Amino acid sequence: MEDYFSAVRKMEQTVMFPSVLQGVPLEWQDNTPEADSGGKDLYDYYTLLKSMKLVVEGGLLPLSNQNPDVASRLKEQEEKEKQNPEGYFYYHVSSLYRVLAQLTRRANAVTSKYNEIMGLDGHLSWRH
Prior knowledge:
Layout: H1 2-14, H2 42-58, H3 68-81, H4 85-117
């Protein structure tokens, strides 16, 4: 989890002009595209990663403040979890780590591409 926070913090400190990211597609350093990147540009990822960091830091809203459909599904899930708490714990923790690893890669990709665009990585600027 610390890698995720570190990557997003570095992204926030590096990206001084987020509007530069608009219209720039996400490109992966290892040439392995992620499945759900369709239509999103780096600016979309930048804003998404920043807002997700706030949720991870601050926690979820109490059930009483959430959408009634979501609250209902969460209550149903809690009932199922009571039957096998260890299994659900492992499932959720492993899923959380997978998602955080994916978000960390995205934050690193946004930071790297921003540096490239701004000419901060020793390469030619993206706009030239």
